[in-house]
Each structure stands twice: as structure tokens, then as C-alpha cells.
């Protein structure tokens, strides 16, 4: 099959140069389009598309519509963006795109063409025979492959040949750490190493639909399956948390469910990320997805309904002050950016041992700027103002404070002591973004409002400092409780389904599960060991993942 390459760029001279730089020994069909709209129309001319080169500045848009159209019609296409942005700005680009910076690195473009338009099909890396490429990420390409030793289909990821030494090191570290994060319900890393100049890693092939895909298809699940999903996900996340494996927040699209009820979580361990302690709120996306897959709430057991309600309950925080505690419920539905920004400060302890530095009786109590030594706390970049979210500055609400620029809010917040219409948005003012409400402890806030103050540096500062010792999250249920309740529900509902194993057998699922189990047992020493990648990127001998001498699993 002849590879196809579509160049969508308004500079036709540059587009022609790209065409001329394709290695002469690669036979590829190259198409051109000068605008985003023409590029989208050109997609109808292809039955498959291997490479699409685009930019971020067209007369008719920023390229986002083109990218969406390519992803929808040809999800396996390698996307390459041509930009003159400095490298420090690349973080805002999709990490799966390859970035070609101008002036053009012709060597990089040549390698890109050989790797994408050339064919790896039929190549053999160690005992893995490479088949079709099915996706790309920031490190390399992923291929369907066959393990000739253990006679099974696998996924093989091959590092880009143009990867820097730093990228190669991170690729190895990620594969090694993911191997150590092995769990019965996590996609397994089988092998990794180097072979004839290629660094690669093989993963278990698991092509079951995600919770998001199931919802899109209108699939419904029963209560036991819902309990099993929650139990499995919490078990995996708790295991990762106990071993301090860093990973991004788990999303519903990364949790899969087979027709036989087997739940697996994508292995998303990433050593480039800092470790963050697991929070119950991390389960909210999964709970929402499970809720969507269930029939109406009235048709599910009361215990499961209660567990989902606890998980999906609004986020609460406790302000521990020198005059008592204040409990606030946050509204991340109407003020998502503001809540996320506020919780980021909470999680890093930025508000610990700070002052309520501005107290005006009959108006507001303000905090989040100074330590007890009147030193300003470190702040993150300002956030957009969400004051137009429909939440009003009423008594007992919590809002973000900002300066003359309505989009200058960082860490400071105010409690409204009365209904403050002057802080609501109007035609002449942006207003303060409300993002929470006091549900317990308003009497403490009223005590703060009554303290003696002195005017100092434009603030009404309490004479006797009112200290905010810390703000902490107040989950309605702990992770341990979630795991225990979900496991108990799973067992309880399983006991109520008589002949469950036989029903699986009648559907022909037992043999499939047994086959998986026997394979996993045969590979237990590999899939549950602590493994490390060794060998040089350019080393021409095959190197495997080895057990870590710590003995961790």
C-alpha cells in the first residue's frame, strides 16, 4: 500500500520544499492544500493517510478544525505541526504531535519520512514481529506485533530514531517504572530493551472499550459490574499510591471493561510527573462515568447509590483558624478554574499559618496573601475571572479577590459577611468570582468580623492576629472506605447471582478468562517483577528488562 502524505500549509513554496525533501527511495503520494477548509475537503480523497503536516495560522482559523477532522477520519495518522514558536512554548501543543520548528531541521524531517512513510511491517525486534502502526505519542510509534516465543499478540512501542538522549532516558525510565507498577488489573509491560539501534517496549494487548466508549454506545451495566469497577479502580490507585508511583489523574477513557466483566486500567505511570498523594476527589470522573452506565438510580441497590453519592458529593474544605473551624463547600461545576486554582494552593500548603489581613465588619473578611510575618506567599500565574457564572456574592459565600485587572486573581479570597451586590458583575464592573459557600462555622466568621482592626498599608489589619492555621480537604468518604464498601458490595452482589460462573461458561467466556489467567501465570515472574531497562540506545544486542533487587512488586 503506497503511503499518503498531506501537506496543508498557506506557504506553497515551503510546502514544495517539504515535498522535495522526501527521500527519493520512498514512494509516497503527496497532496497539497493551502487552507484549513481545503485540507478538510482533501481528506475525502484518501482511504488512508499516514502523515499530515499542518501549521497553526491559516486565513480561516488556527488549524484546530483540521486536526479534529483528521483525528476523526484517520485516528492513526501522524500529525506534524510546523511552527516558529520557541521551544518553551511547545508545552501548550498536543504532546502526540511532532513539532518541526523553523528554520527546518532537514535531518529531522528526513528521519520522520523514513519512519512514518517507510514501513516497519515485517521487521523483527528480538522475538517480536512488527505489524501495522496504530498510534503515535510523544516518544514514538505503537505497532501491532506478534511475540514468536510465547505465541501471542502484543503492542510494541518503538522510540523515535531522532529522540534525544534525554528523551531516550525518559522512555526507558517510564517503561521500567510501568513494569514495576504491575497489578492484576493494569495493562502489563512484558519486555523492553534495545535491538539493532531501536529502543522498544512491549505491552499486553488489551483492546476492550473504555467507560467513555461504552457510554457513547448506550451500553448499560448492572450493579455488580459497577461495584467491581469501583473496587478495581480504587485497588489499583491505592496500590500505586502506597508505592508512590507518579501518574496524572485517572480518566474514565483509561478504564476498560470487557464483555465478560474484566476491568483493566491503562498503565499511566509517568516518572516525569511529581508524586501526588491520592485523594478521594480523584475518583469523581470514574464515579460519574459509572453513574452514566447504570440504569436509573431507583433501579440500583441503596448501598451502591449511597457510595456513588458520597464519591460525587461536592468538594468540601475546612478552614482551621485561631477562632474556630469553617467548613466550605466548593462549586467546581460553575467555577471550575477558580476551584482548581484554589485547591492547588491548598494542596501545596500555601495557606498554612497565614493571616486574615483585611477585615471590614459588615462587608468582607479577606485572606490568602500574607504569612504571620507579613511576608507575601508565593503565587501561581493569575486565572481568568469566572464572576459571570451566576453565583452571587451573598452572605456566607467565598469569592476570589482581584485587583484592577479582573483577570489578576491568584491566591487571595474573601468571605462575604453580608449580601454584597457591589461585588457582583455588572455592565460597569467585572465582579468577584464566587466559588464556594460556608455550610458550617459562619459564627466563627462573625467572630472574626468583630475583632479590633488598625488601618495599615491599605488594609484593615486585626490588632490581634487572626491566624489561618491551614485549609484541608474534607472528603465525605476516605479512600479506604471506598475500597472496603466497593469490595463488600461486589461480594454481596456476586453472592446474590446464583450460578454466575456457569452462566459465564455458557456464554463461552470461561475459556477466554482461563486462557488469560494461564498466560498471566506463565508470565508472573515478568509481569509482577520490578524491571529495569538496560543497554545503550545504539547497542546492537538485545537487552531485556531485569528484576530490580529491591524485591518490590
Brief characterization of the structure:
With 553 residues, the protein is α+β, with helices and mostly antiparallel strands. The chain contains 15 helices and 25 strands.
Describe this structure in words.
- With 553 residues, the protein is α+β, with helices and mostly antiparallel strands.
- The chain folds into 3 domains: 4-116, Rossmann fold, CATH 3.40.50; 211-313 and 478-521, Transferase(Phosphotransferase), domain 1 (Orthogonal Bundle); 316-473, Cyclophilin-like (Cyclophilin), CATH 2.40.100.
- It is 29% helix and 24% strand.
- It has helices at residues 12-20, 36-42, 64-73, 106-116, 165-180, 211-216, 223-242, 284-293, 302-311, 336-347, 442-449, 479-495, 500-506, 509-522, 524-527, and strands at residues 4-8, 29-33, 51-54, 78-83, 98-101, 124-125, 128-136, 140-147, 152-159, 189-195, 198-204, 255-257, 263-265, 316-321, 324-330, 354-360, 364-371, 397-400, 413-416, 434-440, 453-456, 459-462, 467-473, 531-532, 546-547.
- Strands 14-15-20-18-19-17-16-23 form an 8-stranded antiparallel beta barrel. Strands 6-7-8-9-11-10 form a 6-stranded antiparallel β-sheet, covered by helices on one side. The protein has a 5-stranded parallel β-sheet with strand order 2-1-3-4-5, sandwiched between helices.
- A hairpin with a 2-residue loop joins strand 6 and strand 7.
- The two termini are 44 Å apart.
